[in-house]
Write a structure and sequence with these properties.
single chain, about 350 residues, alpha/beta, Rossmann fold, Dihydrodipicolinate Reductase, domain 2, 2 domains, six-stranded parallel β-sheet, 13 helices, globular
């Protein structure tokens, strides 16, 4: 690639927007040249418009860049979105209608039947929805989404097992406080405590995986016939969403076959050597006390999921523990990998 592709960030001052900037600072394909945020921050230098929450310093190129109004047509054609869902609907639609490619971390359009809900290792073919989206919406741009940060933890573990015919999944998540953004969960609520409710989260986990694991059939995705029951909890970890999953299949597979499928799982990002792709998207950990959020969420720069404790389940067939990094594989890193896949397909 001779020159880098200019990209913008909608919602640049939030924690996911900050993570986008951090990941783009030395990216070989993309460079962030436009930062959009709420009206109260428009016109301010980026360093004054936000409270930096990540490790390391604010990227130098971004620090003095002026924050701009989230209005289409003023920034690059390709924009990443970390807008809150209640704002994303109108803003992302306006950008796509104006010809922008919106690569979104927001939940607003994930379940829209014309919008790809993309995990590049699992369903790259769902980009085939883009001509349908443009035809039905009448716009020249597009919207592509990535999954909920807890759903991606589980779907990365389930995708290698799809050939065995999963039919039921019971999921309990233990989600880090960074998933709530900043200032997020008050410390007196989070420390020494487990909060057994995250608004709207269980519904996302219960519905998004069927779409991701489904097959593109003509102009629509045929969702996988998988019943999911989820309980989502907030725990006092900083980063990393961990989940326990019990699975029932069409017929009981052998443990060795499941492990072999998990260990050998690769996808298009690995075949093409995309810059943000982990070498192994799923790591199988053999120690009985792994994965752990503090020790394993950062595997392969936070872009690999990990699976452990595969064992028989007295109610279903098998149960396991899985983990991924919620702001990397589950948010900004996921959207960036989506953009890399699209570029490799000639869609940007």
């Amino acid at each position: 690639m001779s020159g880098k592709i200019e990209v913008g960030i909608l919602g640049a001052t939030g924690t996911v927007g900050q993570r986008f900037l951090q990941l783009l600072e030395h990216h070989p394909w993309f460079t962030a040249t436009w930062l959009g945020a709420s009206d109260r921050n428009v016109g301010k230098p980026y360093r004054e418009a936000m409270a930096w929450q990540l490790e390391g310093a604010v990227p130098d190129e971004a620090a003095e860049r002026r924050v701009e109004e989230c209005v289409p047509g003023r920034g690059p054609r390709v924009v990443f979105s970390s807008m809150a869902s209640n704002l994303a609907g109108d803003i992302e639609r306006a950008f796509a209608a104006a010809g922008h490619i919106v690569i979104s971390n927001s939940s607003h359009y994930r379940m829209d039947p014309t919008v790809p809900l993309l995990v590049p290792e699992i369903n790259p073919g769902h980009l085939g929805l883009l001509p349908v989206q443009r035809r039905e919406r009448g716009w020249e741009g597009a919207i592509v989404t990535n999954p909920n940060c807890a759903a991606v933890t589980v779907v990365m573990a389930l995708a290698p097992l799809k050939p065995f015919g999963p039919r039921k999944a019971m999921v309990t998540t233990m989600q880090a406080v960074s998933g709530a953004g900043y200032p997020g969960v008050p410390s007196l609520d989070a420390l020494g405590n487990v909060i057994p409710y995250i608004g709207g989260e269980e519904e996302k986990v219960e519905t998004e995986m069927q779409k991701i694991l489904g097959d593109l059939d003509g102009d629509a995705v045929r969702a996988l016939d998988l019943a999911v029951s989820a309980t989502c909890t907030r725990v006092p970890a900083i980063d990393g969403h961990l989940a326990t999953v019990s699975l029932e299949f069409e017929k009981r597979p052998e443990k060795e076959d499941l492990l072999a499928a998990l260990r050998s799982f690769r996808g298009v990002p690995q075949e093409r050597g995309l810059p943000s792709a982990p070498r192994r998207p799923v790591h199988v950990l053999d120690a009985p006390d792994r994965p752990q959020t503090r020790k394993d969420a950062g595997l392969e720069r936070g872009m690999a999921a990990s699976v452990g404790r595969l064992r028989p389940c007295p109610l279903f067939h098998w149960k396991l523990v899985c983990l991924s990094h919620n702001t990397l594989r589950g948010a900004a890193g996921a959207a960036l990998l989506n953009a890399e896949l699209m570029q490799s397909e000639g869609l940007l």
